[in-house]
Amino acid sequence: MGVEKDSAIVVRSFAFKEADRIITFLTPSFGKVAVVAKGSRKARSRLSASLELFNIGELVFFEKPNRDLHNINSFDVAEPIGVLLRDHFAVAYASYVSQLASDISLENDENPPLFYLLRSALVAVLAAGTVADLRAIARCFEAKLLTLSGYRPRLDTCVACGAQVDEEEVAVGVSIGGALCPDHAHQDRTLMVSAPGIAAVRGLTGLTFEAAVAARMTRRQKVESKHLLTMFLAERLERRQRAAEYIDDLEANVDEMAALAR
Q1: What is the mean pLDDT of residues 69-79?
Q2: CA spacing 20 to 30 A to 90: which of 15, 128, 158, 159?
Q3: Cβ-contact 115, 79 below 8 angstroms
Q4: Residues 190/194/199/201 CA torsion (nearest 10 deg)
Q5: CATH 1.20.1440 for the 128-261 domain, yes or no
């Protein structure tokens, strides 16, 4: 049983037995690391406060060879994001980006870019001032995650024949991986996206989270970028994150209350 140390982000947590928790961390050197935090649900546990979701710090754990579950020694928090997040929307969006990163990551898979992408996203979520800011951060994260995982949709040329795609309304094939020219649009279930919507999605990957928040998009661009990016992620992961559904419910309730107030 070797002792390992790495930077880490708490991405999942659930109760185990009477007083324990199973915690999943995302790390740069080991990918996902699942540990048993014995006694961490007890009020006097030295680990209890540090293991809040989204906290960032340094993890020391005992690695069990050929096992999926390891033992934690310590977790020293450097950035207590989980403690500082109190707004329901911010928590929901932090959950969403963390779930996406966790689902993309593999155990024992070194991936520093993924770790630092999630860290930057969580810091941006903490700094966000409005729900619109949180949405922009989520879209930017989705675009960067697709690129990082090798599933960035090809949107400038037809994936079937390579022809330039410059129509005002572009057919995007979800399972085939990108734009389709009019001659090949029948080959896949398609999402119709406007040329400005395509431009918005293509531009997100190169933006920082701060720049994404500051970027000006039309309402249509925002709607289309959300649909396109979330559909590609659902295709890649073969499911939709529960946090995404929770966000939809939260925002639907806000819209309903706003409508009643008018």
Answers
A1: 93
A2: 15
A3: no
A4: -50
A5: yes
Intrachain domains 2-85 and 128-261 with the same fold: no
Q: Which residues contact 159 (CB under 8 A, 6 or more apart)?
A: 173, 176, 177, 178, 179, 180
Residue 109 in this model has a pLDDT that exceeds 50: yes
Q: How far apart are the first and last CA of the chain?
A: 63
State the angle between helix axes of 88-104 and 242-261 in degrees (0 to 180), rounded to the nearest 10: 160
Q: Which of 67, 47, 53, 72 is nearest to 11 (CA)?
A: 53
CATH of 2-85, picked from 2.40.50.140, 1.20.120.450, 3.30.565.10, 3.40.50.970, is 2.40.50.140
How many residues belong to the chain? 262
Strand partners, 192: 171
Backbone φ and ψ of 16, nearest 5°: -145, 125
* Cα angle: 181, vertex 182, 186; to 5 degrees: 100
Look at 29-33, 37-41, 128-132, 175-179 and tell me which has the smallest mean pLDDT.
37-41
Per-residue burial over 210-238, b if 16 or more Cβ lie within 10 Å, else e, is: eebbeeebeeebbebbbebbbbbbeebee
Domain boundaries, the chain: 2-85, 128-261
Dihedral angle at the C-alpha atoms of 249, 118, 141, 105, nearest 10 degrees? Answer: -90
Give pTM, 2 decimals.
0.91
Backbone angle region of 171, left / alpha / beta, with phi > 0 → left and psi within -120 to 50 → alpha: beta
